Protein: Ribbon-helix-helix protein, CopG family
Amino acid sequence: MGSTVLSLRIDGELLDRLRQHAAKRGMSVQDYVVRTLIRDDFDERFTAAVEETEKFYGDARGSVTPPIT
Structure:
């Protein structure tokens, strides 16, 4: 997979916050933003997969039968 340049115009205050969050993790702002976007994309796909599974199998959270001991 190749890479492409994405240019953003953001508020100085937001950039300062991004720098602080990135520094806490020992990352560059660019790496922090990319990882955040990847994580958010994963979260959305995971949520969609769970919803599709619940549609297919039904929401089993309330219907789990505990084992007899």
In short: The mean pLDDT is 83. The CA atoms of residues 12 and 59 lie 45 Å apart. Residues 10-56 form one domain. The radius of gyration is 20 Å.
